[in-house]
Amino acid sequence: MDLEYLGYDNWFEGHASSLLEPGQRVARVLAVDRDAYLVRGVGQEIPAELSGRFRFSIESTPDLPCVGDWVCIQDASPELAIIHAVLPRKSFLRRRNPGKTVDFQMIAANIDTTFIVQSCHYDFNLRRLDRYLVACRDGGIEPVVVLSKADLLEPDEVDGLLLDLKGAGVTAPAIAVSNTTGAGLDRIRALLAPGRTFCLVGSSGVGKSTLINRLLGRGELATKDVSATGEGTHATTRRQLLLLDNGTLLIDTPGMRELGLMGASDGLDDSFSDIRELSLGCRFSDCTHMQEPGCAVLQAICGGELAEERYASYLKLKRENDYYDMSYVEKRKKDKDFGKHVKSVLKHKGKAF
Ligand SMILES: Nc1nc2c(ncn2[C@@H]2O[C@H](COP(=O)(O)OP(=O)(O)OP(=O)(O)O)[C@@H](O)[C@H]2O)c(=O)[nH]1
Ligand SMILES: [Mg+2]
Ligand SMILES: [Zn+2]
């Protein structure tokens, strides 16, 4: 295999052998820009587009190739490859499609570790962090929390934030870094390894691209100046995969405002393992931890063992999760019932007057 440096391994090879047709080879998607792809296999990177038949077979957006995917390509010319299939994903990071309900958008695929970047001084938010953690667990990705711009706070304030994370039950490793002073970068570097894929996510302006530039050792990615308040405008406009000199693969992503919840409740349980553990002590096995007598979760809040904020964040995620886990049919029925209910209310109202 000559593709190990791009993260290829036996798992992918096993899947590729049944998907590849004569004249095709595998390549990894480095960047996506609407219908245009940039892929790299053996040799140089090459622009690519979907074959008509493949495009026709796509049933929903997550089936489309995304950054980090392995695809089967055929060389149409030295300047263009045709994508015929996507290999199964070992892991993925996805978000809910804004405005749509049960539709997802792939952020990136085949990632080993995601750096969830939050800026120390204005962006630190446990609730948002929880969403990213859930997304990582759902997609089978190891999360690492990165608190950026540590230079803008006093050291003990930064330590306080790290303690807040622990206090909130976040078990993922957390690293405070400064791209300006270089503090903490050695701890990030220690995690990097050839052939392993890392993805950086987080709000716009927190310093994701700057961090990658530091790791690259050159200013390859565009970054943007921010106002004194730290409000950033989007500097990165597309997701792309970069190769460090030491062989590490890094995916840069544009800042996201909202990362919708990801669906499966497994991720939720993993992220709130403290609450799951507490719930073993609830009197009823189907306890919703909202009002039931003998609820161990509510008792823990009263006793001060569980932070109210964390509980609220759990409930919010759970509510969203339950809704997005419903099937189309269930949703339609719910909407219909609601419609009936409204009608009957209006009818009675009409009679009354
Ligand atoms: N003080 C300080 N400023 C930083 C640090 N890292 C990045 N910045 C500044 O923050 C601004 C935004 O950095 P970017 O790297 O473009 O942020 P980004 O997360 O890639 O933003 P998007 O691409 O929009 O998602 C730039 O002006 C950087 O110079 C840091 O560690 N300390
Ligand atoms: Mg950027
Ligand atoms: Zn309970």
Q: Catalogue the ligands.
A: guanosine-5'-triphosphate, magnesium ion, zinc ion
Largest sheet properties = 6 strands, mixed
Cα shape: globular
For the CA atoms, what is the radius of gyration? 23 Å
Low-pLDDT parts are 226-232, 260-266, 325-331, 349-353
CATH evolutionary superfamily of the domain at 92-252: P-loop containing nucleotide triphosphate hydrolases
- The helix fraction, in percent, is 25-40%
Strand order of the largest sheet: 10-9-8-11-13-12
CATH topology of the domain at 92-252: Rossmann fold
- What's the architecture of the domain at 92-252 in CATH terms? 3-Layer(aba) Sandwich
SS element count, helices: 11
Strand residues, percent: 15-25%
Number of strands: 13
Name the structural class. alpha/beta
The level-1 CATH class of the domain at 92-252: Alpha Beta
Q: How far is the first residue's CA from the last residue's CA?
A: 79 Å
Mean pLDDT: 84
N-to-C order of helices and strands: HEEEHEEEEEHEHEHEHEEHHHHH
Provide an overview of this structure.
With 353 residues, the protein is of the alpha/beta class. Among the domains are: 4-86, Beta Barrel (OB fold (Dihydrolipoamide Acetyltransferase, E2P)), CATH 2.40.50.140; 92-252, P-loop containing nucleotide triphosphate hydrolases (Rossmann fold, 3-Layer(aba) Sandwich), CATH 3.40.50.300. The chain has helices at 10-19, 52-57, 126-139, 155-167, 185-191, 208-216, 265-271, 273-279, 296-302, 308-325, 328-352, and strands at residues 24-33, 36-40, 45-50, 70-77, 80-86, 92-96, 104-109, 113-119, 142-148, 174-176, 197-201, 240-243, 249-252. The strands form three sheets. Strands 10-9-8-11-13-12 form a six-stranded mixed β-sheet, sandwiched between helices. The protein has a five-stranded mixed β-barrel with strand order 1-2-3-5-4. α3 (126-139) crosses α7 and α7 packs across α8. The protein is globular, with a radius of gyration of 23 Å. The termini are far apart. The site of magnesium ion has 5 residues, from α6.
